[in-house]
Design brief:
The complex is a heterodimer of chains A (about 180) and B (about 120). With about 180 residues, chain A is mainly alpha-helical. Chain A has seven helices and no strands. In chain A, helix 6 packs across helix 7. The longest helix of chain A is centred in the last third of the chain and has 31 residues. The radius of gyration of chain B is 20 Å and the shape is elongated. Classes of the chains: A mainly alpha (about 180), B mainly alpha (about 120).
Chain lengths: ~180, ~120
């Protein structure tokens, strides 16, 4: 086994363990912080899988901003979690059946790291061979994001704008109702 | 065999654990965290598919011709930002629910709704 495989295996195992611990936790503060740990571990995994741009976005946005938002939310709503009785059997049955179906689906997928997988033989070679001529910057991810697929990024900005408007409307209304009370 | 599919299988385990939190936990904030775990596991699935054995990050250099696929990276960059937007919106809705019901526990919210219906 080479070093890359070992790093990959251990990071994935640590991710799974983090979520197992997170499910069993009762304190919301501890849960939020372990979800931050989970995001950082996945950022490490992205570096191991050559996705450096994704890794720093996940570390900054996923682990940073999401954790801050969650901390702000529990500071408003309180960090104690009321323990209520709920049935465990039905959710467990649902996830077992869904998980088994998904694992059956993966058996048709090309093996991990296969250079001849269909995903690597369609448009990706064009981007890798032509982008330095057509766009002129060495980072192919940036070329695709800002130029070839610029409209997708525009759509992303529209999503962020809509979410920001939604948050402002929801929270702004709350403040006004508070004043009238 | 195991090394070929290990990434996909761990991703499915993570996905199902996130899904379990969403459907079994009654705390709304923990549900949002479960949703985040689910989303991140999908990101790992896509990035796993983009990896080429022996390849390097898709930043063009003279020393090599073998790069990992940049296309899923772009897709997931967009998805990460969208996931933060949805998380923020979900948490704003939870803050609003907390203002109206004074709780973020689903069971307690349903109890209050039932009481109102009876009156």
């Amino acid at each position: 086994m080479d070093i890359e495989t070992i790093v990959n295996f251990s990071l994935l195992t640590m991710l799974a363990l983090t979520v197992v611990v997170l499910i069993r936790m009762k304190s919301l503060l501890a849960i939020v912080l372990s979800s931050g740990v989970y995001s950082f571990l996945s950022a490490g995994l992205f570096v191991a899988m050559d996705a450096v741009d994704v890794a720093f976005t996940e570390a900054a946005v996923g682990a940073g901003i999401t954790t801050v938002l969650l901390l702000a939310a529990i500071s408003i709503t309180g960090r104690r979690q009321t323990v209520s009785k709920h049935k465990r059997f039905l959710p467990l049955a649902v996830i077992t059946i869904t998980g088994a179906a998904l694992i059956y689906g993966t058996l048709d997928m090309p093996p991990y790291g296969d250079p001849m997988a269909p995903i690597h033989t369609h448009v990706a070679p064009h981007y890798l061979t032509q982008s330095s001529e057509e766009i002129g910057i060495p980072n192919v991810v940036t070329s695709v994001l800002a130029s070839y697929r610029g409209y997708d990024t525009l759509g992303e900005v529209a999503v962020i704008f809509t979410a920001a408007v939604g948050v402002l409307l929801l929270l702004g209304r709350t403040a006004k109702k508070g004043e009238h009370k | 065999m195991i090394a070929d599919y290990f990434n996909y299988w761990v991703v499915i385990v993570l996905m199902m654990m996130g899904f379990y939190i969403v459907i079994s936990d009654s705390n709304l904030i923990k549900k949002i965290i479960g949703l985040n775990i689910f989303q991140t596991s999908v990101f790992i699935l896509f990035i796993s598919m983009s990896k080429v054995k022996g390849g390097t990050a898709p930043i063009l250099i003279a020393e090599t011709d073998l790069y990992s696929n940049p296309l899923p990276h772009v897709l997931i960059l967009t998805a990460i930002v969208v996931s933060v937007s949805t998380t923020a919106l979900g948490l704003a809705i939870i803050a609003r629910i907390h203002r109206a019901y004074d709780t973020v526990d689903e069971t307690a919210i349903h109890e209050q709704d039932d009481l109102q219906d009876d009156n």
